[in-house]
Write a structure and sequence with these properties.
Elements: E1 2-3, E2 9-10, H1 13-21, E3 31-33, H2 39-44, E4 52-54, H3 62-70, H4 77-80, H5 84-90, H6 95-110, H7 114-129, H8 145-150, H9 165-168
Parallel strand pairs: 3-4
Antiparallel strand pairs: 1-2
Length: 169
Amino acid sequence: MKTDSYSQLVFDEDDIVNLILSGHYPLPTGILVDKSVDVKSVKSQLDTVPEFIEYTEPTDSIDIFDYKLQSNWYMPDEYKKLDIAEHVLKLCVTQEELQRAGEELLLFQDRNLFDLLKFLKYLVDTMKLNGIIWGVGRGSSVSSYVLYLLGVHRINSMYYDLDIQEFLR
């Protein structure tokens, strides 16, 4: 496997065989493969067929390439289409919780971070589904009540009177 100048992993046929033999099967979708891979031959030998993308060197500048990657969140459509503000507000019980969550959501919206919140919801749901344990919380993120409601951390920032500005500065 090689890494191009944009830090993308590009697989050859041996790399794909090694992935399968090492237990990484089914293979993830969207694998970049170099021109030496006989895609039809590899696909004919697999039960579950991943999407292979023939690698071509990107022509965009690294800044444009990074921007394109950052604007594409790899998560299921149900999460991309989720009204994250409505979801978070439904998790609130009291008027004070609604107020705090609403204020935070406006701050997240002002910073164009709703896609990030959707991805975090997807990440937490995926970890729960697969029995993956993650930490209680750390750093300034624990001052966010919205992240607490989404399950990203387990520190109730309202209980400890933590200011959201500590997280978003």
